[in-house]
Amino acid sequence: MRPLPQIIRVVDLETTGCAPPAHGVCEIGWQDVALKGERWELDGEGGSILVNPGRAIPPITQAIHHILDEDVAEAPWWHDVARRVLDPYPRRVALAAHRADFEQQFCTPNLTHGANWICTWKCALRLWPDSPSFSNQVLRYWRKPEGLEQSRGLPVHRAFPDAYVTAHHLRDQLNEAGVAQLLEWSRDPGLIPRVRYGPHRGKAWSELDHESLMAFLTDRDPDIRFTANAEMDRRSGGGAVGRGNPQELLL
Length: 251
Description:
Layout: E1 7-15, E2 25-36, E3 39-50, H1 59-65, H2 69-72, H3 78-86, E4 94-97, H4 100-106, H5 109-112, E5 117-119, H6 120-127, H7 136-143, H8 159-177, H9 179-187, H10 210-215, H11 222-235, H12 246-249
Parallel strand pairs: 1-4, 4-5
Antiparallel strand pairs: 1-2, 2-3
Pfam families: RNase_T
Protein name: Exonuclease domain-containing protein
Domain Exonuclease: 7-179
């Protein structure tokens, strides 16, 4: 029997807001990335489906993705669309999204068959800490991924183009660090390369004095708390904050 192909499906959602069940999905897009020989590459054409969210789309979110109520009035419901996109045959190794915590609010385990998730945002923080920002689009123009067709990645904030761009980031992350490492990083909060705000904004965490670093250990943001604790561990010999060296990436 031939082994099943190794495929990861990148998904992107456009929604009526960010807090289900008050908000619903109005579009889902996807693009697969597959292991071909020893390298990961984009696979297939991908696609998108409009979804009836079962409620009006607020003007503030229409202004982001430009999906109108009349566009989705005759579209299928989320429960009729989600499972066939999120759990296709052959079963994917994992699902992936940029800032996957958002997609996971709507793509619940009963719809994904309990799939593992890779967050390309969290992985970008680890692999490309020198980026000026870590949004999907800033990474697109800062990195200029090989093979990314400009027109297929537009318009921004539509489900397929965003999934297509994210798939290029995922492909390069997989080829740099591997599936197991990306899954591990994705399970943790984000490891933020530089201080985000305050008098030390823009500094590397290693530049902070002990008292300043201690103040971040109780920050409201779980990514900041996680990063500050990681820097404390580093100072006591427990690891590094930021880019791992090649040997670390193999472990």
